[in-house]
Design goal:
The protein is an alpha+beta fold. The protein has helices at about 10-30, 35-55, 250-265, 285-295, 305-334; strands at about 5-10, 60-65, 70, 75-85, 90-100, 100-110, 115-120, 135, 145-150, 160, 175-180, 190-195, 225, 235-240, 270-275, 275-280. It is built from 5 helices and 16 strands.
Length: about 325
């Protein structure tokens, strides 16, 4: 099993406390005062105790990402994390860090759990790697911050859907839109079976298809009829349609995302046909599954090389410095 990397650092109050301890230590050596020696020893013991208590505070604490999360590329979203305290005593003042995002938990009771959110902006579609996730605590005196890195399971990694792109200028509406009529496929015609939505008429439930053995109190599942309405707009997005073959993969995904967002906002019927599967519904029903189909399309965009980006940033910074020097020399000459 890979050992988790641990981190120890002094907080701002801890640095002030260390400075006072050193000052009292020098004063005790110069004066030979036993009271100052006793005070310095108590302050040193307090620092050591603070580090051990902070380490014991995060002992046997599990932090996991909530599975099944979907975010959007290049958009800052909330990542849900579940914190479980397995200790027989409460957890106090724990801090979670994900890159530059930080959140603190005041208290979690013994053998209880809590949900926390951290902000993250995914750089690309698919499953890009997360920044370093850290868990730490400075309890109880806020002098020494003890923390460790948390490994993230691949099964819990969130999927990132493509960003919403601009609509195609050639088409009035992205996708293939048509109006339902009262003829074949019109009002009242049966389309398919879907889950019954709360608030609908009970006549929409197909009672003959209800499997009562699979239902239990608090989670009743009923199959419902899906019927087309007169004048209801419908949207068909087919990945293999000829009209989309001139666009690149990522651009096509962004167009599909924009079309779906419009269909969800207008409460249209929509159908998405992708190589990874097919999904159809009305309005925002099953919208997460549609985003998942867009996010899981392979191949994913290539990841940028951090070393190359750092080298490029260094070259750009040098060019800026040379430009500023040249500008300064030009002003002096003029």
């Amino acid at each position: 099993m890979k050992r988790q990397k641990r981190e120890v650092r002094l907080s701002r109050p801890g640095k002030v406390f260390v400075g006072l301890t050193l000052a009292l230590g020098f004063a005790a050596v110069n004066t030979g005062n036993n009271v100052l020696f006793l005070l310095v020893s108590m302050m040193l013991s307090l620092m050591v105790l603070s580090g051990f208590v902070a380490l014991a505070n995060i002992w046997r604490v599990e932090v996991r990402l909530q599975p099944g999360q979907i975010l959007s590329a290049e958009e800052t979203g909330d990542l849900l994390l579940r914190i479980h305290n397995n200790k027989p005593w409460p957890l106090w003042l724990m801090e979670l860090q994900l890159g530059a995002s930080r959140q603190a938990v005041t208290r979690i009771a013994a053998r209880q759990e809590a949900v926390l959110t951290l902000r993250w902006c995914p750089p690309r579609r698919g499953q890009p790697p997360l920044p370093v996730l850290k868990m730490g605590s400075a309890f109880p005196f806020s002098f020494v911050w003890r923390g460790q890195q948390i490994p993230v399971s691949g099964a819990d990694m969130p999927w990132v859907a493509p960003a919403e792109g601009l609509a195609v200028p050639v088409l009035g509406d992205p996708g293939e839109q048509h109006e339902a009529t009262d003829k074949a496929g019109g009002q009242g015609d049966f389309l398919w079976i879907r889950d019954w939505r709360p608030g609908e008429s009970l006549h929409q439930i197909v009672w003959r298809r209800v499997d009562w053995s699979q239902n239990f109190p608090g989670a009743m599942i009923f199959p419902g009829r899906e019927q087309e309405k007169s004048g209801q707009a419908a949207l068909l997005l087919d990945w293999e349609a000829p009209q989309w073959q001139d666009y690149g993969r990522e651009q096509r995904l962004q167009i599909f995302r924009a079309a779906l967002e419009k269909a969800w906002a207008q409460d249209w019927f929509w159908q998405l046909q992708m190589p990874t599967g097919t999904q159809r519904a009305q309005g925002r029903v099953q919208s997460d599954k549609a985003l998942l189909l867009l996010a899981q399309l392979t191949p994913f965009p290539p990841a940028s090389d951090p070393a190359t980006e750092a080298a490029a940033q260094g070259i750009n910074q040098k060019f800026r410095q040379w430009g500023q020097r040249f500008a300064g020399l030009s002003r002096k000459v003029l």
